[in-house]
Every structure is written in structure tokens, then in C-alpha cells.
Design brief:
2 helices; extended
């Protein structure tokens, strides 16, 4: 499960703008990217796997690790 949360760094700590429902005393991995003015992550300067993860999350894909070959080679349907 992943969460996307905005935060502000005050020079010492990151202050979250939203509450998170996380388990106390549990380690979490944080990926910090600068928020662009329009609210989008700069896809040109972001880490490529972060872009893929972000797109998969937006598309509600939960099995990307298991089925990445199928997604990578899937042909897009014509509208």
C-alpha cells in the first residue's frame, strides 16, 4: 500500500499536510520529491521507477511486480 502526502520542510523536519493512518513503531520507506507548482511531479527529472510506480498507482494497478511483462507488452486498445 502506498500513500501520497504533501509536506513542508521547515529546515529541521517535514510537516505533513494530511494525517496518515499508519501503524506506530513501524518502519516506513519515504521517497521525497519536490512538489511542482501545478501539483504534478516533474516527470523529466524524477527517477524513472518512481514515474512508473506513480502511473501504476494512478491506474489502480496493484499487481505490477507480478505481471510487469504483461503490462510492458500490452497493446493499447483503440478508443
Amino acid at each position: 500500500m502506498s500513500h501520497r502526502v504533501h509536506a513542508v520542510y521547515d529546515g529541521k523536519v517535514l510537516r505533513l499536510e494530511d494525517d496518515l493512518d499508519l501503524e506506530p513503531n513501524t518502519r516506513y520507506l519515504l521517497i521525497v520529491e519536490k512538489d511542482e507548482p501545478n501539483g504534478e511531479i516533474s516527470r523529466e527529472t524524477s527517477y524513472p521507477l518512481s514515474i512508473i510506480r506513480s502511473l501504476a498507482t494512478d491506474m489502480k494497478i496493484t499487481d505490477l511486480a507480478e505481471r510487469h511483462d504483461q503490462y510492458a507488452h500490452k497493446k493499447l486498445e483503440d478508443p
